[in-house]
Amino acid sequence: MIRPLLKLTLLPTFLTVLSGGLLAQGYPSKPIKVIVPFAAGAISDGVARLVTERAGKSLGASFVIENKAGANGSIGAREVARAQPDGHTIIVSSNSAHAANLYLYKELNYDPVQDFVPVTGLTKNPHLVVVRAGLPVQDMQQFIGHAKANDGKLSWGTGNSGSLANASLLMARTGINAVRANYRSQPQAVVDLLAGRIDFMTVDYFNISEHMAAGTLRALAVTSKTRLQALPNVPPVADTIPDYEVIGWIAVFAPAKTPAEVVDKLNKAFVDVLNAKEVVDHMQGLGMLPFPTTPAELGAFQKQQIAQWTEMLTLAGVERE
Amino acid sequence: MDLVTHLAHGFSIAVTPLNLTYCLFGVTLGTLIGVLPGIGPAATLAMLLPMTFSLSPVTSLIMLAGIYYGSQYGGSTTAILINTPGEASSVVTTLDGYQMARRGRAGAALGVAAIGSFAAGSVATLVVALFAPPLSSVALSFGAPEYFSLMVFGLMGAMVLASGSLLRSLGMVLLGLAVGLVGPDINSGKLRFTYGIEDLFDGINVVVVAMGLFAFAEIVANLEHGEKRETFTKAVRGLLPSREDLKRIIAPVLRGTAIGSLLGVLPGGGPLLASFAAYTVEKKVADDASRFGQGAIEGVAAPEAANNAGAQTSFIPLLTLGIPTSATMALMLGAMTMQGINPGPQVLTKSPDLFWGMIASMWIGNAMLVILNLPLIGIWIRLLTVPYRLLYPAILVFCCIGLTSLDNRVFDVHAAAVFGLAGYLLFKLGCEPAPFLLGFILGPGLEENLRRALVLSRGDPSVFITQPISAALLLASVAMLAMVVGPAVRKWRTEVFREG
Predict the structure, then answer these.
(1) B31 in Cβ contact with B113 (< 8 Å)
(2) Which pTM was predicted?
(3) B455 and A209: CB-CB below 8 Å?
(4) What pLDDT, in 10s, does the model give residues B38-80?
(5) Which of B380, B438, B369 is nearest to B120 (CA)?
(6) Is the ipTM of this complex over 0.85?
(7) Residue of B nearest to A158 (CA)
(8) Measured between CB atoms, which of A40, A109, A318 is closest to B189?
(9) Phi and psi for B39 in degrees, rounded to 5?
């Protein structure tokens, strides 16, 4: 029983290798599997669902999202690295699986650069530098001054590697010395910030929009170089610390050797979606910046990010596994 | 009256045909998975999450919530009739519920369980409506020391309540704590006990452990007895409890509701702990504690009221703070997030339709459940009379579907099989899996909060006794331990569990 089945599945592989160009014309010929290497409900999952629903219409194919969470995105990424490079399996990945993991895991079972071809960026997700309502500071200058005057007395919280890297770099650049408390997730740290048990943290807008509206937390700055539409009064950290930019990002990659024509087709479909006004507004409302790129731009960006995440995680003192 | 206006608004949303349909679907499915041992609400929710994308937020939450509290009803049916908890939270119900069934009072036990659950559900719905806003500030006063002490208290309770030797249950708790440590260390990110197995890098999913220990192991253990199980599916008649029964259960139901409502709100609490606590309290206040374990009707009414109340009030921290208190609530949080709703204090003001619609639907759903579980009890009983050779493979298949739907990993099925084997071994050794599971669930939080409390106090351990809530919880834990170790109580404890 098994052998004939195997032959049947191997036959298309053979054809694919032979006729990449021909294939692109008929692409997509079946539903496109989208691996999201994080749990359903995670931010990358939400972004994937938002953009694939629309891109599917213009491509005339349906996208099927499959959540393959685990090991900081490694498990899903490895699956895509080994998938058929015919454009019918792609990954909606992030700075974890396609940059930070190179530092985090000594033995990563996939190569975030060699095993993939970049398709397009989707979003940049900046963090906000947020302080508890009772902390007597109104902007970054005052915050840095206050933290230095109270050397080692302030506490900060972190609930994921992104916020850990972000705050670690911020403190290294400003010379702030404060005590770190670790949380299992960002919302838990936010609760302690609300209750005043910790003094500051960096966190994405989505997790605190409700509290900012209620005035129970205060955002001092945003870690992207551009402001968020939703928070026109919150300046970039770069206004205080020149060139500072730390962002999480979500982007689409396909397995290496996916034909260029197919990559271009996918790129165009996604970029069109990212330029649609409703999509831009929706993303901005959640505190994300749309991030359409060419495949080459994403490739260059990824290399720069790998270097930056390595620096930040080293500064944060995260142990490699 | 604001509350009345809000609730009226909620009902106007909950009674739309679409929402009523999904509410009914949710509670029916909930009862079904409640009756079937092994498959629980967390796995079911995980399976149904993809379906909610096509629904509006309020409709999908009404359905998902229905599954959760519906399973609390269904779980008791199995507990009473075949001495197997349909849900983890109905473990306690087996103690006296099954004994009632053995004494020919299966009908009354089922009736009391449903009525107790309904009364508790109605009250708890009101509790959610009344206290969700003010209670958000109580939850806010829980910092790391308070959480730590609460978890110590919970684990102590699990040990004291386990049947058999105290030493064995202590061993089980510790084993659970150890298995809970698998995965990344919270402070350094260093992986512990993963042996290079990538699927262990994030730790072991609680559903995997629960399915292995409870579903798989149970099935294997039951197979030993062949088809000759002692069930009381034919002996069910007279579902309406007598007047004397009713009089007897009023106070236990109210106490159970109060305990359940309180423990449901607290993280780490939830239905399981609530039912255990309610049972202990009933034994404490009873004139004749020796009746417990022999078919005491209070031993069914109180825990059933408590687990249903706890299931409902566990929505309070989720809706007011965005804090999930259990695996099921974490999935609820995921469902809300996917719908673009950020659970937090603003849900109430920003999405009043969602908040009040869901609360109103809880009451409607509870009313539906009474109908599903009393007049239609025959259908569920028939499910239990399906021969093992059909029922067991079916349950195993459902379990495996649930397991693979967690993270789309076959590894989880294998891991559950390992826990199934371990569970069977423990069963043979006379060790209870419940303390293990509690240790496993609470372990990571216990460690995390201990370390965080010490970090934030700059290494000063006195925070645990200078913070009033934490101090009270630790004192209660010590008192509980002292009672069990004390000779008088030990004797009592042995008597109580002799039957179980």
Answers:
(1) no
(2) 0.70
(3) no
(4) 566 766 776 676 567 678 889 998 999 999 888 888 888 888 8
(5) B369
(6) no
(7) B187
(8) A318
(9) -90, 125
